[in-house]
From TrEMBL, chain B:
Binding site for [2Fe-2S] cluster: C84, C89, C125, C129
Protein name: NAD(P)H-dependent oxidoreductase subunit E
Keyword Cell membrane among record annotations: no
Domain of life: Bacteria
PANTHER family: NADH DEHYDROGENASE [UBIQUINONE] FLAVOPROTEIN 2, MITOCHONDRIAL (PTHR10371:SF3), NADH DEHYDROGENASE UBIQUINONE FLAVOPROTEIN 2, MITOCHONDRIAL (PTHR10371)
Entries under InterPro entries matching the protein: NuoE-like, NuoE_dom, NuoE_N, Thioredoxin-like_sf
Listed cofactors: [2Fe-2S] cluster
Keywords tagged on the record: 2Fe-2S, Iron, Iron-sulfur, Metal-binding
Native species: Thermogemmata fonticola
Family: Belongs to the complex I 24 kDa subunit family.
CDD domains in alphabetical order: TRX_Fd_NuoE (cd03064)
Length: 458, 160
């Protein structure tokens, strides 16, 4: 088990400083020295190699190795090549990127500069969700500061390298966090994800090779280049020998706590902290002296853990699952996701929780693929029926059937939104079937049901 | 007579050099117009399309994908207040807040008060879960809400 005692935050080291956003303070703390050194001393391909060696995996949800993604770019491409920063953080219960952008934007921007240099991009598009108005304005100021101090623009620090950052605001659509949805949206179209291949690294924004990276991933790039590969690999967990596809989970991770915890907050720890430790030690425990019934380990797309369900091999219960890329999968969840941990206490109905989740995906399905558009809608309708105490025995199997059939894993949709819609439904029904069956049997009506439906005009 | 002032046009055109093509300015242009006029009327869509060398249907297609943008006849109130109904907020009382706001204002989510002061909306997760339940006042997070704070906020917005 990973030791989290006495861990000194690195990504969050500066967030409580006064005026932590400003360039001056960031430079006093050694900011942009790493970028200047990289520009002076390293070739772009050396930066790519360094990031590859670090084992950094994308923090946005899929966990794809960042260096390998970068290496997918065509060799000797005449350009342009683009970096697209994915700051459309919309996975429910996730807010780590927001903390970074609001409190330490220059750490993120230094990562943008280093990464752009590594992939030889001359323009980086910074796609930020509309709901992050404060972060948008702070980044706007930070980018202006960089132009004024010659760290952006033409011939940066007389290196011959030039870079522009374009801050681009979204308009309230979850699907824009899917990398090709983001690209379509950036191009001024509806954010319908593209069929892959070609992957964005080959043909992305404006039909040019494009790397899409998450905000936390880019902050990690800053720290890897500053502190070294050995530092990064000294944190976290090596590959699980029992899982040949596991590439290990190195480095620090920003976990966000939400829901029924005493202290919902963003915590930085080495990868691999257990859910129990995170909630009990760092989140101050479950609120109102209650017990945790279920936990969502990485944004709602990942599904649910049942806290009293024993794991095989006597390793405790699902509450003891380590939060690394490999851990949640061992308890039937889709993966680590964004590292957003949401606690559900023992007084809460899983029917209400699953209804809420279905409501989200039904609202946010982009409508391009029929199985997702229709499947998410029907799952919500069935959950609404359950919530009204009119559930039928067969409803649970219908829900499972829909949840199993929509997504890129069964192969019926273009993007993973539908997998994310299915996973919470099927994990909740499988793990809490007793509760669902009892609710159907007893015709239990949810406390949230109102005589008239809330009219969804939005 | 055009609906977009020269100032708005210049602002839209200032985005053109940032992107490899004009179509990419669609979202910035819609934001600029939406901020200024509190909706995007048909005539503005035609004028945005002219500026960006697109067909109006292309701008309209993009605009209507993002339910965020209000079109002809859907002008927003002075303040747009979103109440988050995402899981983290729901677990800490969001549904009660939505109900309270609807009662207080006498409208449903998606509607604007007859005096034009407030447009009420529900939002999917706004990423303010450390301050759940949370609202979005235009584009600024208002965190750690409860019924009392919400009532105070609604009173303030009604009298702005």
């Amino acid at each position: 088990m990973v030791s989290t005692m006495n861990y000194e935050p690195v990504l969050l080291a500066r967030i409580n400083k006064p005026r932590s956003q400003q360039l001056e303070g960031y430079r006093q703390d050694g900011g942009y020295e790493t970028f200047a050194r990289v520009l002076r001393e390293m070739k772009p391909e050396e930066v790519v190699a360094r990031v590859k060696e670090s084992g950094l995996r994308g923090r946005g949800g899929a966990g794809f190795p960042t260096g390998i993604k970068w290496a997918f770019l065509p060799k000797n491409h005449p350009g342009p090549v683009y970096l697209a920063v994915n700051a459309d953080e919309s996975e429910p219960c996730t807010y780590n990127n927001r903390i970074l952008m609001e409190k330490d934007p220059h750490q993120v921007l230094e990562g943008v500069l280093i990464s752009s240099y590594a992939i030889q991009a001359r323009v980086a598009f910074f796609y930020i969700r509309y709901e992050y108005g404060d972060a948008y304005r702070i980044l706007h100021e930070s980018i202006d500061e960089l132009y004024q101090s010659g760290l952006l623009g033409q011939n940066i620090l007389n290196s011959g390298y030039s870079l522009d950052i374009v801050l681009h605001r979204g308009a309230g659509a979850y699907i824009c966090g899917e990398e090709t949805g983001l690209i379509e949206s950036l191009e001024g179209k509806r954010a319908w994800p593209r069929i892959k291949p070609p992957f964005p690294a080959v043909e992305g924004a404006f039909r040019k090779p494009t790397i899409v990276n998450n905000v936390e991933t880019l902050a990690c790039v800053t720290q890897i280049m500053r502190r070294g590969v050995e530092w990064f690999r000294s944190l976290g967990v090596p590959p699980d020998p029992k899982n040949p596809r596991d590439l290990g989970s190195y480095g620090p991770k920003l976990y966000t706590l939400a829901g029924h915890v005493n202290e919902p907050k963003c915590v930085e720890l080495p990868m691999g902290v257990t859910v129990r430790e995170l909630v009990e030690r760092y989140g101050g425990g479950v609120w109102k002296g209650r017990k945790a019934k279920a936990v969502n380990p990485g944004g709602i797309s990942m599904g649910f853990l049942r806290c009293d369900l024993p794991l095989k091999n006597g390793e405790g219960t699902e509450y003891d699952i380590p939060l690394d890329f490999n851990g949640p999968g061992r308890a039937g969840c889709l993966g680590l996701g964004t590292g957003a941990v949401t606690v559900i206490d023992d007084q809460t109905s899983m029917i209400d929780v699953v209804h809420n989740v279905c409501q989200f995906f039904s609202h946010e399905s982009c409508g391009q693929c029929t199985p997702c558009r229709e499947g998410t809608g029907w799952m919500l309708k069935i959950m609404e029926r359950l919530r009204r105490g009119r559930g039928r025995r067969e409803d649970l199997d219908i829900l499972l059937d829909v949840a199993e059939r929509i997504g890129i894993i069964p192969g019926t949709t273009i993007c993973g939104l539908a997998d994310g819609a299915g996973w919470p439904v099927k994990t909740a029904i499988r793990k809490f079937r007793d509760e669902f069956e009892a609710a159907i049997r007893e015709g239990k009506v949810s406390r949230y049901v109102r005589p008239l439906e809330v009219v969804a005009t939005h | 007579m055009t609906i977009l002032t020269q100032e708005l046009r210049d602002k839209i055109l200032s985005y053109v050099p940032k992107y490899p093509n004009k179509r990419a300015v669609t979202l910035p242009a819609l934001h600029i117009v939406h901020d200024a006029l509190r909706h995007v009327p048909h005539e503005a869509i035609v004028e945005i399309a002219e500026l960006l060398e697109l067909h109006p249907s292309e701008v309209y297609d993009t605009m209507t994908f993002y339910e965020f943008f209000k079109g002809e006849g859907e002008r927003l109130g002075k303040t747009r207040l979103w109440i988050c109904r995402g899981l983290a907020c729901m677990l800490r009382g969001a549904y009660e807040l939505i109900e309270q706001a609807e009662q207080y204002l006498g409208i449903r989510c998606g509607q604007t008060t007859p005096d034009g002061q407030v447009t009420l909306e529900f939002a999917e997760c706004i990423g303010a879960c450390d301050g759940a339940p949370a609202c979005l006042r235009n584009d600024v997070h208002v965190m750690n809400m409860n019924v009392e704070k919400l009532n105070n906020l609604l009173r303030e917005l009604k009298n702005l």
